[in-house]
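Components:
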Amino acid sequence: MTVRAASALLLVSGLSACSGPQSVLDPAGRDAQVLASLFWVMFTGAVILWLAMNGIFLTVTRFIKREMSERKAETLIIGGGIVFPTVVLAGLLTYALAEMPRQRERGEGLTVRVVGESWWWRVEYLPDGSSEPVVSANEIRLPAGSRSEIELAANGVIHAFWIPALGGKTDMIPGRTTRMSLEPVTPGTYRGQCTEFCGESHAMMAFGAVVMEPESFDAWLRKEAAPADPPESPEAIRGREVFVTEGCGACHTIRGTQAQGRVGPDLTHLGGRTTLAAGILPMETDELVRWIRDPESIKPGARMPGYDHLDDARLRALATYLEGLT
Ligand code: CUA
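Structure:
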């Protein structure tokens, strides 16, 4: 590949990363807006400095043929090498430090507790004044227009929580609770990602991040708090039987049923989520079948065993039941 082709490819891939559901440069929250402006200020400063340095270099090497006096050279070194960078860096530092306190502000109203597991997310919602959490998994929903408190923990190994469109990242450390707050502005569906290497499926530890209008969020949370509706279609009823006979309830909870396992993700409203397997598959019957049959082939190291001993009909019935848990 020629240098020009490589640069063009780099530019195109660089620019294509500037938008989309997982971009810091396409902010949908107050905190991400601050970080994006910080980036543009730094980037513009860097470009100006780069042009100035190269300008001086060219001037001195190409255009000024005569030798420079010692005094002039000294002024250039002290001015350009010490005074100028000190002033510029102090200015940038002051600007960045002034922006920081807001990122540490306490949230008001909703608290969301997130625990990093291998390799998925345990999620609990605590509305204002409530001590009884609404348990969910692998998706974070937040109301637009208010600052929510995010409490972070980890089980076993370190992870990091990051929704680029909404704000900065925070480590999740076993045995400790870390915190941050987020103030989403624009309703929409975004994407979060674990950003600390946590094992073989680190790159497959993502989640959907949904920002909703406050009224829709309240309605959604009420529904999420309710137990699962019993299945109605014959296929889904057969699926529930498979779920019971295969012992899926030993690891998973479906509120309103006998299934009370806490090892794996809560499945009470699985079908209502935007993604499957922690942000890596679309919520579709075929994908559910593929996942249940052989999770290892999709997410190496996944703790869930494969169910390839089930025939297609039973797998499909099970997937239909789970997808119907909206
Ligand atoms: Cu969890 Cu990387």
